[in-house]
Amino acid sequence: MDVSPEYIAQCDCPEIQAQFKCVNGDLIYLKRVPEICASDDVDNPLVIGTSVFLHPCDDYCIQIGFDDETFVSRDEFIWLPRQDDLQKMVTGIKLSTMVMGLSISHTSTFVDYLPSFMRFAYEWDFHKKEVILTYRQPFNSMEQLWLAFVMKELHQKQWNGTNWE
Known about the structure:
The chain is of the alpha+beta class. It has helices at 5-11, 14-17, 33-36, 83-89, 110-121, 142-155, and strands at 27-30, 46-47, 52-55, 61-64, 70-73, 77-80, 94-99, 102-107, 122-125, 130-133.
């Protein structure tokens, strides 16, 4: 799982954070660890369901530790989606296809987007007889690559090194 500073920065956008539906095992990154937690031994990012507990209210907030009364509101942490979370973002979307002049609608599945992802990420170099990356922005993990694909497919945005535009 990517927990690099680059991935954390890429995830810190409204399009991705709006998809947060907390489940055990989710990773969150605290924006202000020293100010939020008195303890210096707090791991960051934190895993929901270990020593971090979700308290859904008007907006999500979390409790850190078993005995600690430290509560963190939703704007104080960044959700770090796993690769399967990112893949789920492109499923369940209504797609419409023209077949012999008829519009046929269906709900997208992962398989619907796999060819698009492959074209997005790779191409066959006939001269060198090898697969090469087509996406010019260097990504260091599959989470970063899938995040870039989700942002392109769903929000028409591209990572410029500092933010999505």
